[in-house]
TrEMBL record:
Domain of life assignment: Eukaryota
Phylogenetic classification of the source organism: Eukaryota, Metazoa, Ecdysozoa, Arthropoda, Chelicerata
Alphabetical GO biological process terms: intracellular signal transduction
Source organism of this protein record: Larinioides sclopetarius
SUPFAM superfamilies per the UniProt record, alphabetical: SOCS box-like
PROSITE patterns on file: SOCS
Domain (SOCS box) ranges: 45-90
Protein name as annotated: SOCS box domain-containing protein
Length: 90
């Protein structure tokens, strides 16, 4: 999946600048700040692994069921290895 993050940010700032009257210098300052804050941006994104997606779903379902992380994971009684995995320890 190709994401052109930098160009999307610049496009959004340009649209915003036309409605709010921002100077090109202000746009560049905001863009430079954002780029520095989030680190290097890549022109592509890799899909998450199935392992990561499964962990995310289990954690989300626990939270939606009212079980706080990490206490909710302990209450499930899953083996220690799986508990560590769900607690982002591995």
């Amino acid at each position: 999946m190709v994401l052109e993050i930098h160009s999307e940010i610049l496009f959004g700032l340009c649209i915003f600048s036309h409605t709010k009257g921002l100077s090109s210098e202000t746009i560049r300052d905001v863009y430079d700040f954002y780029s520095g804050a989030v680190g290097a941006c890549h022109a592509y994104a890799e899909a998450r692994s199935l392992k990561h997606l499964c962990r995310s779903v289990v954690r989300r379902m626990l939270c939606e069921s009212g079980f706080w992380i990490p206490d909710g994971i302990k209450l499930t009684g899953v083996p220690r290895g799986l508990e560590s995995f769900l607690n982002l320890e591995d």
